[in-house]
């Protein structure tokens, strides 16, 4: 890690009364430490130089060539330093004693740094990284994404009030129609750099924060809240290392799953899984991302013709699919590419757009399910589920088509529910199995008659025509079925139940 004068000052300040001099520079490098007694001179590497002020007075030449920004002066109480310095240690202590404290500080920081780096490289969780950071910094920590969702925080050391930060996602204010107090000001500070060290929150507490570089299309804020002790320059330096290790963890996360859990993608996942339901809260979070939630919404779910995408396929195709359906951002979720399109009435994708998208899907051997066009107040979880139902129904009922609209798949919806959320045999009319069993051992096949009669709604004339069968023969076969199954095929309710059972069996691929 970069051991700086700020870290040295923090270590000394825990043992002695210290003052920052005119040459103090918080981010000045302090790789090692030297004690310069009277009369000692020569070449020195980068480091900090501890001088006893009482000796320096006798031989000022000992500081010739030594940059004053690296000098720590040891002065007795009430003594006025005579040379430029970075830090003054006001104490009756020797230079060697101060050197020992500085060496201990640098050693402790290096050990903590090595431990944190190992934690990140071994793939530990964000919560574990935050716990290691808290152990060194001694104040509550919080990791937020750009959609203002809490990704990790200290488990035990927390703030007593509801405002962890001005961006806290758990406050009631964030679920209201107004922006969170201080939110816009906080984000604007990061236009000037990645570190903010002196922000005052809405509750009056001080906050230091470091923003990661872009990870995918989003970034995280690593926040340190001044609760137990003052946040120092050294704390900010350590916070930057925690931030760097968070970046390392996310970039190294397998399958980019951790990366996709932040920002826009993570917000949509929260909505798909039912953790984010309110359209007001969704709108607030989208504004935090620089987007606006419009009046209408739609979800499109894309997949291969069989199965799901693996990580590599999904990320290879994401750009191509997005370019051919430019109405919303694409996220990878549950093995599918999912689009959330938000638009005002009349300005969303039209029939021509969907035709072009359908051609692209056909040429790419892909398929997609499309939810209904709905008001923004409909939870995204419902839209996602209808798009998934459309995809599943289309695969089974429309195998020669690439784009499946839920409106066109609606008539199969109950069959899809029965086949995926229950035992389809439970819903089937008993006569289906009885007739199928009979046909396996008999040349007198009855299932084709039962199927045709049911699909014609019990109309015997149309059934006879479709089967090219004499009416007397049909009447005889119907009698056989009724005797075999103990049913009345002139009863409309029986015919309707059998018809739905046959469609369900064939939809599930079990048709006789």
Helix content: 40-55%
Any idea what the radius of gyration is?
A: 36 Å
Q: Low-confidence parts lasting 5 or more residues at pLDDT below 50?
A: 36-46, 53-64, 161-171
**Structural class computed from helices and strand pairing:** alpha+beta
Q: Give the total of beta strands.
A: 16
Largest sheet: 6 strands, mixed
The termini sit apart by 70 Å
Coarse morphology: elongated
What count of helical segments does DSSP give?
Answer: 20
Average pLDDT taken over every residue: 78
The portion of residues forming beta strands comes to 15-25%
What does this structure look like?
This protein starts with a helix and ends in a 5-residue tail after the last helix. The relative contact order is 0.07. The protein is elongated. Helices cover 44% and strands 16% of the residues. Strands 11, 12, 13, 14, 15 and 16 form a 6-stranded mixed sheet that branches. The protein has a 5-stranded mixed sheet with strand order 1-5-4-3-2. A 5-stranded antiparallel sheet has the order 7-6-10-9-8, with helices on one face. A hairpin with an 8-residue loop joins strand 9 (206-211) and strand 10. Helix 1 (5-13) packs across helix 6, helix 4 (126-137) packs antiparallel against helix 6 and helix 17 crosses helix 20. By secondary structure, it is α+β, with helices and mostly antiparallel strands. The longest helix has 27 residues, at 95-121.
